User: Fold these one by one.
Assistant:
Number 1:
Amino acid sequence: MSAAFWALGRGTGVVALVLFTVSLVLGIVARSGRPVPWLGRFGTSDLHRTAALTGTGLVLAHVGTLYFDPYAQLRLVDVVFPFLGAYKPLWLGLGTLALDLLGVITIVSLLRHRVGPRVFKAVHWGTYALWPVALMHALGNGTNAGSGWFRALAVVCISAVVTAVGWRLAPSYGDRGWERNPRRTAV
Amino acid sequence: MTTTTVPGSTRRLLGGVQSDVARHEAAHGPLPHLSLHELLELVEASGLTGRGGAGFPTSIKVRAVASGVRRPVVVGNAMEGEPLSHKDAVLLDRSPHLVLDGLQVLARALRARRAILAVGPELDPGPAQEAARRRRGLEVAHLDGGFVSGQETALVNQLNGRRPVPRDPFTRVTESGVDGRPTLVLNAETLAQVALIARHGADWFRSAGTADDPGTSLFTVSGAVGRPGVVEAARGSRLCDVLEATEPRRTAAVLVGGYHGAWVPATHLDVRLTRSDLTPWNAAVGAGVLHVLDDRTCPLRFAAEVADYLAGESAAQCGPCINGLPQMASDLHRIAACVRDQRLPAAVARMAAQVKGRGACAHPDGTARFVGSTLEVFRDHTAAHLQGWCPTTMRPTPRGVS
Amino acid sequence: MTTRLHIDWTRCDGHGSCAELLPELLTVDDFGFPTVRTGDRDPVVPRRLEEAALHAVRNCPLMALRTYQAG
């Protein structure tokens, strides 16, 4: 039984990481304003959001199954406060940190129409911190971290994010794909 | 800065008592205490409309803030962001007490939480501050900002500690403005008129002007005139009568309404400064700016430089404005430089149509009106430019503005 | 009571999702900013487009859109 929990715990974690990678890359594509074939702009941002929310759901399953797995030795406090864990406290702590960030980002994003564009945007920048923290947690804490397929998967995810962020920072990224004068705005 | 009064108009606003309250009370009498009901009746009966440019019926604005639960804020707008306008500066210098009286009588009747006179960066707040010294509860604020800083929501934004740029007009300032309270923003001259109406009544106010547009108002006359300055005239006066005392010379056209206004050519200077008479020219009295262009100045070169200025004064918040206005200015410059591109006027017209109504304020609309009027009224002049020569200078490229 | 669509121009960054979702009401201008086809400031949203309009409002990344009821 414990083995099932353990497998489920790891599995949900890995898939969540992949989904967050997809979401981050799609977020950058969406922000670029370029229409993606077949998806369009609406489809791109819709998929970005769906991937993120699905990933969030999987993270909750990930934490849930590991909490009930005696082998993982997860206490309730470890779910919220980072770096207090019994087993691999540093890497577990990064997971807790990622969970905390994810919680804030998700709640603010769901309430974005209430909190306004400035708060939403500021908090959303936190996704650039969330992803590497989650990745490091997976690499350091994950049991599969040493195995080949996981390493390959990690390389693919990292390459995708580095490419996307590189494009985000490049001058060619532009103003949502248009030649424009810059707006002076608070947001 | 000269001030004159058109013969036949009473000198109502520019008494020139400055900050001397004793002379002010001697000239105008004491300011009566009016209840909200009394004041509303007077203002409504007088038919007073705003003197800040929009010409909105003042009684409607006052009613809008009177109906709320929260105590409102009353703001006098003396920002005067339009470079061609000097009437509020002159009014604050000559009759600050009248402006403050208007603020006070409204603030009292509305039980306002705050009463603020907002003075723009180009104006001297001294006389108003001096005049406010002996009054309780009136604030005089010397503020920042450019062309759009006098726009209602931009002014409210600044008073709330934000940038002096407009906000989304969805929430009206009469619902939520300064400190989140219902806010009444009235032009300084409108306040002075209210002060006079409170003393002398609606019938007195209506003894000048027309039935639809009663009273007097201040006009700023600039450009090719011997004696530029501020003129007080009855509403509905003829343009030529208002200009007469300022000694216009070799008039080619008059820009009515400032940089967001429209041209009236010299052939029609007998037009009455009323809404109906000015509508065929797509013009409105606005804040009373009358800029005279003579036949020695190329109107297209003038307009191109105004368009540049207006593009630069955009708050830069709204995409259509920050992109469309520089485009119009650039095309107008090319026309002014006698570039032989026949598509230019259509390109300008297309961009003017594109920017209208697409922004948080009327800056793009006003610019589009000015640019459109220029190409319309100076159609023949434009045609010559497109053939490569300027009728003003009789040269291929016109010299600058004289 | 009709439903109208309001664009907050101080927020709009000309992303264009809205024009994609409401092509009958909106197109984009030379610089990518939404343009109301009828030229109205706050266009009326016909009943059959109300759901699409709601999607557009929720999907705008700058939250520059809202609908409201007008008499």
Number 2:
Amino acid sequence: MSKLIESGLELRELERLANKKTLIHQVNATAKLVVTLILIGITVSFSKYALIEIIPLLIYPVIIMNLADLSTKHFFKKILVGLPFVLLIAFFNLWYDQTAWLIFGKVSITGGMVSFLVILLKFILTVSAGLLLIATTPLTELTTALLRLKIPPFLITQLSLTYRYLSVLLEETATLLQAYSLRSFKKTGVQYQVWGSLVGQLLLRTLARAERVHQAMLCRGFQGIAFTRNKSQLQLCDWYYLCAWVCFFVLVRLLNLPEILGMIFTGGFR
Amino acid sequence: MHMADALISPAIGGVFAATTIGLAAYAAKKVQTQLDEKQLPLMGVLGAFVFAAQMINFAIPGTGSSGHLGGGLLLSILLGPAAGFLTMAAILIIQAFFFADGGILALGCNIFNLGFFPCFIVYPLIFRHWVNQNSSKTRIFLISLIAAILGLQLGSLGVVIQTKLSGISELPVGTFLILMQSIHLAIGVVEGLVTASIVSFLWQARPELNQPVMPLVNLSTKKLWLSFLVLALLVGGVFSWFASSQPDGLEWSMFRTSGQEEFTGKSTWHQKLGEFQEKFAALPDYNLKNVQPVEGKYPSVDGGTSFAGVVGAGLTLLLAGLLGIVLKFFKKRTAY
Amino acid sequence: MSLVINNLSYQYPNGKQALRGISLAVETHETIGIVGANGAGKSTLLLHLVGILLASSGEVSINGVPIIKKNLREIRRQVGMVFQNPDDQLFMSNVAADVAFGPQNLGITPAAVTEIVAEALKEVAAEHLAERPPYQLSGGEKRLVSIATVLALKPEILVFDEPSAALDPLARRRLIQLLAKLPQTKLIATHDLDLVVDLCERTIILSEGQIIADGLTLEIFNDPELLKLGQLEKPLRMQGCPICSPKIC
């Protein structure tokens, strides 16, 4: 049941990273959020065989990871979480798409191989884009960014409340499961006879907690209207950051940069 | 099953994101007009609860394996459909951003699959319809089971449709459907049983909770079908537009080859694969894409371009790597 | 008189009679200890002081303003409550946001809120914690910050539910020193009788929803009959030396 504890630790680790003070951390959250979303959109918009064209986008994670002082190893471990499902789907491409795409002497590279790699690349790019945003931006700043992007305050408040009680509930659940496993002597999870009462008890406590949180809110003047924090303005350098990346992404999308580079190198222009 | 960004097209991601934003705005309005300010902390704390509860492994009797809770159905039972939907959305957003589980562009798809179906379809049409204050325990179990299975079947159907419409996976629809629906049948059974046992326990311990926390959002069935229709048209429209504006996968792939090679069975790699395929009988409708390219039908591309592309790709990768090393070097320099 | 309770009774929806005919008058700047066994009605009584529970019969008023539904906004400004579990009270994503929550709800301008937050954190000597998320705080720090969230509303009356629960000895001592310094009228519900001896001149014993004693702290704690009736024990400090006095069990 260490999954619970691990998740809690992971949250804390991300929070620790987000509170570093590097160049990237100082960029306004709204700018970073917009860059992230555009990167994801551009990445996904590449066709399924655009293996070569998509490669320059890798420069984004390389630069951010270095400037934000993040460990690559740690990151790759995190990226692996969602991989199995994507791999499963991508593997079938190897299978079903066997049209030759490129032939080197005897070895033919099939369309499936290419689209398989493209899926993996897209996966790495999109997932690392999200993680890099979270690892360089504290949640409070992110919520103000969401506010600026016109997300209703009610939803933002609900989201941050969920996040806030995540660590509390993870800890509570972990303790409960520890107590359970000490007396159950079984390894395969919670037995079905106690499903209802074990989770039900936790749920009852959670409901009681919600009640107390609500009381604490009431005591401080809460009237059902969600609250907001003051927004921070985008500085000139934030705009530069935003524009530079967006220009780069658009350039990569419109031109096949590696091919141009390769043509120059192999003299393809002659 | 959380959809990843890598598996969807921008059009599908966009359509479902728009739909989900619409649904969320509608749900937020509903929740706020209930004027029950208790709802907000309850949603927050219950969202965290479901998140934690998802990590509890439930041993499945007689199988030696274990399953876990999804939460959409449970949340709508506890909070009502609108608040349940928003809470599920918050959980999925946190999972996507903080745990890299499910894509960010794919959030619309995931919230739709795991939030919309259980909260707005299955809960009002199945659960609330058949279960009330006086329902027996057996009935609660039975209906929860049906509701959870149905919800997950719809959800995984959503995954299949979204993936296929995005045109990135080559998996034939039939195989994909059989695979996904059968996996989710099993997941649905666990979800249903877990939800039922929690609900039965809760209603026994706190009978006063056995009523909708919030009066059912007055979803008229007409409205529901109408919005379904609109969505279907939207997806269909976008898909057909996409299909017509972009050549399908095969053509794309042929665009890259020089057009002279006959590909089937020529390479050893391919032969081995073919042998392996014959042994692999689990996918009966497996169908080798055996289309012979007709000479001249596909535009043949100068092989030199592709070669330059490959070289360039290698160079770009090298460059990116170098960039990383240089940055690292300078960082160390400045640190001392 | 800053707080007057007149013949207050309360019955929970499930039928449990939690308070029976409580009457109490508290002077401005008084510090009162509320003690009693588990389930005696301490928490229920506190919840009436901030209008989370409303009297089934009888009345409660703060500075002459009765606690009824339409006065709640005014009441909650004047009475600040510190909850037993800081995790229930610290619901925002970081300390500063949490302390700002109350003032923001009052519609104070952002600039003024920032000032109030700094002031409130300074009062509990926790300025350095401002940007921390709540789960990174120790138990003692959480307690201090909880108090700051309440002080930010500038209340005249402070109500504490088990303030010293789950604190280590040093954190507990710091808390006591902080509470001694706060000038507001204070009501402290606790099982920590030594804390009551330190802070409260006057003590109330609750038993089964009734006040069975109301008087000077030292007098009450020196009355064995009364303590027994309230299912209490003499504060440790007032018991004899552990070596020469006989063991109780």
Number 3:
Amino acid sequence: MPDIYAHSGDAAMRMDNETTWAGARDAATAETINTAIAKLNSSVKAAVNAGGDQYDCYRYFAAFDTSGITVKPESATLKLYGFTYTDAQIVVIKVNSGATGDSSTDYVAADFNQTSSTAYSSEITSWTSEAYNEITLNDTALTDMASLDEFKIAVIDHDYDFNNQTPPNGSTRRTGWYHVDEAGTSKDPLVSYVAGSASGLTYSQSEAADLVGDDYTINSFKSGSLSNQYDRDPEQVPFSLGVRGPRHLRGRTTSYTVTLGGKEKK
Amino acid sequence: MRQFRITILWQTSGHTDVITHVFHPDHTKSITADEFLALMTTCVSQTISSCSSEAQNYFTSYLIDESQISEISDGLVQSVEEINA
């Protein structure tokens, strides 16, 4: 199963202590961004103090080079190695193509609001610390992996951030994991996928092999084998059925033996 | 909009965090960009735990992860610089 590791410019972006939830969630630019962090116990966070006037909203951004994927994968999982907090209730979403961050460029603070409303997964409801958490990517994600060279994702809180509901006063949700800058790659974020197959092309090749013999005699010209035009009026087929061409092309009065380097008139 | 880049070396692991802190007019902030720069500049070449309590509070509230708070004696502030001013 091929793996694609996230670019080292993955980013933890955060808004802290905003007086409103909208101020934290809908900020045009993150207040703080760290593109070199090794791990966080709060990679994603949605929280507010008891007084309801200090809201926090943390998001995680990453990008994967999917230029080598041309056929939609059969399946794929995003793997994040958990660290400390395990509240979960998070979701993977699509990041707009206009975001600065990609598989060779670090994310920037202004990418904070480049999140889309397109989910790449279902809500993740459980989380494990110090082990890989495998998140199944949905059909939209699989399609984008094949069609986009840059597969950009964010992981955000599901109930409050994705659904845009104000967290109740005194609530805190945090989920953490290791980021690319952790030493080595054994805990790095990655996408693991099962390659898809170009099934349509394979089928057509098989069908053609049945209809055209090894000696290039065409055995059928029924609809689906040749065009409908010939099905309606077989006399228009420009060769004699069941015999080898090109000596028997319809209308030809002189036959030729084709040889390498020239032709000999019989 | 003013932005500042803070680098912190975690001496035990040898890992360096590169943090960009943004002052945007829409953000709720208790201090100004100038006050932030003055506050952080006093921490350069010191561990976070050696900074003033006000600076330490800013680090723990806005700049570092909760998991790093217990390690602030290990975190050496290497530089504070304004970018894209």
Number 4:
Amino acid sequence: MTAATSSVKPVAKPATKPGNASNSMHPLCPSRESGRPIVSVRGLCNRFGEQVVHEDLDLDVRPGEIIGIVGGSGTGKSVLMRAILGLREPQAGEIEVLGLNALTDDAAQRRAIERNTGVLFQDGALFSSLTVGENVQVPLKEYHGDLPDSLRYELALLKVKLAGLPADALNKLPSQLSGGMRKRAGLARALALDPPLLFLDEPTAGLDPIGAAAFDKLIRTLQQALGLTVFLITHDLDTLYAICDRVAVIADRKVVVCAPIQEVEKFDHPWVQEYFHGPRARAARTTRDASS
Amino acid sequence: MTDTSAHPPQIDADGPTPSRLRLSGSWTLDYAGQIGTALGGAPGGIDAIDATGVERLDSVGVLQLLRFARRADLDFDVFTFHESHQALVSAIEDVADDRPRRKREYGVSAALERLGRAVHNNWREAMALVGFLGETQLKLLRMFKEPGRFRPTATVHHMEQVGLDAVPLVALLCFLVGAVVAFLGANILRDFGAQIFVVELVSISFLREFGVLLTAIVLAGRTASAFTAQIGAMVSREEVDAIRTLGMDPIDLLVIPRMLALLVMLPMLTFIAMIFGLLGGLTVGAYSLDIPPQQYLARMHETMELRHFLVGLAKAPVFALLISLIGCLEGLQVEGTAQSVGERTTSSVVQSISMVIILDAFFAIWFMEMGV
């Protein structure tokens, strides 16, 4: 879905307006040139009792990128996401999201962050007693209760269709959908408020390879069209190769490397080497090379 | 979350060519209301809309413009967007324009259809309950042949939850109801100078009816709902399917321990309920009716027959069976959603309470006709 498919003719007239729209980024996102990260984590420590998950972890997410977070099971990928989202209070460290302090107790700031982040949980986390359409309308009602019903409905329909679901899915309950469709419905709800920042927790886990590839493509398309920054936790090597701009590897309680995948592959760390040079990684690389 | 640099959406006519509109400002979700107003006040006879001056655009803005174009019967080609917005616009424009069918039909035939479905469903539920009763009985019998299937730990666990934990509640309720019956009865009997008959009133009503009925109603509310919710949550998390695939029988594992627990505990609780109901009567007698406990007990001893107690107690196992079966069956019929668990729990409480009362009425008539 590139601009070329559009029927809209760009006019020759140069843009005569202030900065933000000059790149195709989301309005609230700091511009790429500013060099400011959209999410910045400094010195994060997370402990569960005796068990230390993160120690002095640093991570920057640049605006407009898809960053893939990888790491073995139990290395705290989800814990990191939950800390950034404010669902878990870390023992130490600073987290900044969209220029706001994510660990603040200030309700207005917290709400501003929540309003501007979309989250897709592992199994969609749809409200099981609401239809897909009602699920998508929940954040709209909460933050924009004054919208006319018809517009809210149209908006929900649009988001559902943008997420690649048929219009009929709008009136279905989550239990009537397949796993892949539930993820798409969860994505539609995450996109309801046009957030600049999207968190995806293993979006392709449990999908068949074709469905997973389609979901990868959907994420890429939406990211480009809506100017999103995507924080993506995954185990899926295909996803890493297909859509991630940078890959951050969590091992030994911190981010050991965060770079484009070609550089990460070469990084000298036992886990990284095993991960990127195992049989499955070779297969993923071959697919990528064949398709490019 | 509107930052200060944003301007509200605005529509201006392009000076020399009035059929050309210029859009500026923020066309985003935060300004959805103003976008609606601005577009509502837009003049007619437009042949070009220049949206290149829009600072911020999100899917709401595009959607509103699309709706405006549809209303004003404009081709979407008349819009010109800034190039940075084109990916968004074309993504939204490319989405197929199909709509879902209406969720619910209205009208007489639809109402009739719903009524028919409801009747049919009720019939099916009644059949399911009878079928479930048969299945459970069979599996209970099989347990005598294969005692290894019996789960003593689960049974005792449920006995504690169902029986022991309910003792304070049942005792308190029955004590109070006993006191109230004695009090109200005495008020009327006093007019006939027959206040001492309060003893018979309380004893007969508690031994024959109230003891078992109150216990059954408390357990229907407390235990049937718990059974449904416990089993329902397991069904919705596919745990029951897991039990089946592991070669175990959910009836053996989930239903029979609960049923046996209730079969043992409901008669015991009924006995406790009777004692506390009688105590309630005794207390009121002693403190406000001038019937000393010795006299009360002596009168009870003279007038009461064992059959009243047996009539009351005989009903307890039947109610126990009913409550446990309805609770478990409703739980097993849960379908996936949290809402379904809630609906089934409500339904199990309503069904078991009403069935208890209906059956109790039948018992009362039957025992009376039989002369017991």
